[in-house]
Amino acid sequence: VLLAIGRDACTRNIGLQTIGVKINEKNGKVPVNDEEQTNVPYVYAIGDILDGKLELTPVAIQAGRLLAQRLYGGSSRKCDYINVPTTVFTPLEYGSCGFPEEKAIEEYGKQNLEVYHSLFWPLEWTVPGRDNNTCYAKIICNKQDNNRVIGLHVLGPNAGEVTQGFAAAIKCGLTKELLDETIGIHPTCAEVFTTMDITKSSGQDITQKGC
Predict the structure, then answer these.
(1) 46-72 per-position pLDDT tens digit
(2) Which segments constitute the Pyridine nucleotide-disulphide oxidoreductase dimerisation domain (predicted)?
(3) Which entry of 81, 86, 97, 211 is 20 to 30 Å from 106 by CA?
C-alpha cells in the first residue's frame, strides 16, 4: 500500500500577512524567485515551504547553504531545482534526475527531444526466475544541445544508488555520446545506460532476452 497523503505548510498564523508576504492559499506554500526571494525583497524562504519545489531535506540544506553564501559571501551561485536525484523506496525502487518526459516536452518541445529507453533484467533475478521485463530505464536528450541528457529515469534494484552516480554526470553536462563511449560494468543494472540504442519514437521492441 502506497500512501501519498501530502502536507500543507503552516504559514497562515506566523504573521506573514502583516508584512505582505504572499502565499499560495491552496497549500500555504510561499512563491519565490530563483534566488528564494519572496515578493517582499528582504524576506527569503527555503525548504519544503517553497511553492512548486521538491520537498527533500538535501535540497533544503543546499538551498540554505547557497543562500547564505549569496547574502554574506559574495557568491552568485543559485540552487539547481531541476537536476536533483531522488528515489521512491518502494520494493522495486524508482529513481530519477532531471526532467520528467512530460515536463521536458513542455520546456523544449517534443520535436527537439530524443527519448531512449529499454527494459532490463538484473542478474540477481535469473536464479529465482523473476520476470525479465519488469525493470525499465529511460533517458531524455535535448537534440538542440548536443544530445545533452536532461532527464534520467530507472525502475529496478538499487535505483537510488544508480541515480546518485549518474546525477553527478548530468550536472557535468552528460551527453548521449558520452554515455555510448562509457564502458559498462557487466553485469550491473546501471550498465543499461551505456548500451541504449532504441528510441521511443521508433516504436521498436525493448524487451530483453537475458541479463
Answers:
(1) 999 999 999 999 999 999 999 999 999
(2) 84-196
(3) 86
